Amino acid sequence: MPADMLAQGIKAGRISADQYEANFADLHAPLDDHEALVAADRCYFCYDAPCVTACPTDIDIPLFIRQIATGTSDAAAKTILSQNIMGGMCARVCPTETLCEEVCVREVAEGKPVLIGQLQRYATDGLMAKGVHPFERAGSTGKRVAVVGAGPAGLACAHRLAMQGHDVVVMDARAKAGGLNEFGIAAYKSTDEFAAREVDWLLQIGGIEIKPGVALGSDVSLAELQDDYDAVFLGMGLGGVNGLGVEGDDKNGIADAVDFIADLRQASDLSSVPVGRDVVVIGGGMTAVDAAVQAKLLGALNVTLVYRRSRVRMNASVYEQDLAASKGVRIITNASPKGVHGNGAVREVEFEYTDDDLKPTGQTVRIAADQVFRAIGQSLVGEGLPTLEGRKIKVSASGATSVKGVWAGGDCASGGDDLTVTAVAEGRDAAMDIHAHLMGGAS
Amino acid sequence: MADLTTDFLGIKSPNPFWLASAPPTDKEYNVRRAFEAGWGGVVWKTLGSEGPPVVNVNGPRYGAIYGADRRLLGLNNIELITDRDLFTNLEEIKRVKADYPDRAVIVSLMVPCEEEAWKAILPLVEDTGADGIELNFGCPHGMSERGMGAAVGQVPEYIEMVTRWCKQYYSKPVIVKLTPNITDVRKPAAAAHRGGADAVSLINTINSITSVNLDTMSPEPSIDGKGTHGGYCGPAVKPIAMSMVSEIARAQDTAGMPISGIGGITTWRDAAEFMALGCGNVQVCTAAMTYGFKIVQEMISGLSQWMDEKGYTDTSEFVGMAVPNTTDWQYLNLNYIAKAKIDEDLCISCGRCYAACEDTSHQAIAMSDDRVFSVIDEECVACNLCVNVCPVENCITMEQMPVGAIDPRTDRVVEPEYANWTTHPNNPSATAAE
Q: What residue stretches are annotated with the 4Fe-4S ferredoxin-type domain (chain B) (predicted)?
């Protein structure tokens, strides 16, 4: 074991350059032509296929797989992208094991689904590599729409609006477009700057202006947007991170998992990203797994993911849990944070074991930690927003909010899972509703 | 995206994909679903004369053979022509055609070989507004025992006679559907041509028994312990169909006669291949019966993508383009010399090429102790068997030898001139002297 892995504290450069490269390579190597044909061959072209029903964007999966099987993968890509303009990213980050592939008849019958996600990537990567953008704008409508947030929801909405001939301005608080595709999500799921390349490719439709560094609230108000544009779409995601709610939450070494992931994604050199020797991640969702696995891949000696309920309640899929375990992450369940110990910097996190209803058992455990990541959920921030439902913006099935002329979608809006693919579907559907309103004269 | 609109005998359809006369086109419900799914046209399942309709068996009608992973490769059918009332069918045809004026609706017919029978039914069909008729001279089972279907299609004189009647009593295009259960398909095609047919369509199904139940000793599909031959169709028959199409496309008597291609068409590529061999459009049945009507979406997108890539803007631009390159064996260039080449990077060391070549061909592949396979040029006759049995696409290729090189098998120089068997010195009837 390299000495750097044993060094205490939060340090960069724990492993060799080769290890960084190997650890952060593509999680799944892309299928080559032969593999794609073999994989496509397994699809039964089911009638009213369960995989399509399970896809939030309703991609015609049997059709695109048949198009791959018959040697027309560009047509396959078009089938995918006409429903899901971020089909390339979704092929990488979708939890297919709980969506299309979970209900694939061959998964149900044999425990081996058709490799839908990887086939989708094969088709979309092929088309993007040719630099082809297969859609054209309709004639200009003269209508202008403001989109807040350049993540999956906002970009999907903008693209669909642009296709219909509207002019779109997309604002984002960050310096770069992409949202969680660019700043969230584990690096090994989006290698080679894929998120940025996909945004560039998507913008080839024309009619979309990206304005980075513009935040709703501090830089522009919703009222101003309503005045200046014919319609507004809110897709700014969840800007706040929930606190642990225990004493010592502010000690040095404690940070938000989303910031850790964003810093890692934006780092030009992974050996410059510091990580603790003993890392504790608190939470049970995809963000927790992405943080824990990447901490391990950066060379942390011990990484422990602690979730307050049982494994079956974890938001991270079984596949993601197994991925974490295979990388050496220890998963502890049914344990709630009780306190953070250390003099200035964190040294230990204390947990109390609980049952599934979070009833304390009185038994506690202390886990050594020089770095702790909070991953227990994010929250909507902002004032003067449309009516909320719970802690998110209340929307109709087509994304309309309580405010006339304002739509919302993605993580900031109610309804649907917080998934890239769900955000794309919501952005797309809201765009069609906005289009109908703009062209129908109503609003 | 390329325009797939097709004009066949003046009949326009939004794409060249028609459903063949068969179970999928037996009634209004199916045909409407087919048109909604995107099919360019249908040939309505064969109608018989007025009167009590035929009956079908009440046991299994189909048998199948499978490839790996139970992929259906061949289907065998003993269903007869429509077993529904003639007038019910005619009313439905009229309604469907009126509702789908942009789609082709062709009516398949099979009535006894008597002028009166044809004279009786043709005005009824004319009245439906359908775009044309197809004469079912191909059905190989059941109906042929009653002197119809293939029994007519196997006698060129009958074909000519009936075609003439149809041209006399019917004003729209007449397509003659040919049986493959015949020695030389050019003869019935020429007969149809002489009778005035506007086009031929082929192939109908091939006599077949798909399997025998070794417990009951009955051919399948088995009806109460007995089986009969059926009509074979599906991907397995495509090579046979394409050969027959090409024979008609390049025969002197029938060259240029429009052809509607049928026989195992399952993908856009199959369709393009039939069309390259001279078919103005294609008809599909088994692929729809296996996968449902939606299958046409892949055919449409695939053909369109291919046409875009090739720069074709109309299907007529590539119809028949492979016909001039289809020739007799005697005209193949004997001075064209190739050698197999194995790409060792792609090779997965299964050894199938070695087994095939060593056991059954020319002992032209060497195998090392560490399972590296290489071609022995001194022995290789470029037969292509290794390419055909290799499980990895493009791992083994046939490389043409350049002019002037010495073929190590014969120690002879590769000559630049085209030379075929008709002029070869070994040919006792060679036309050119040395």
A: 338-370, 371-401
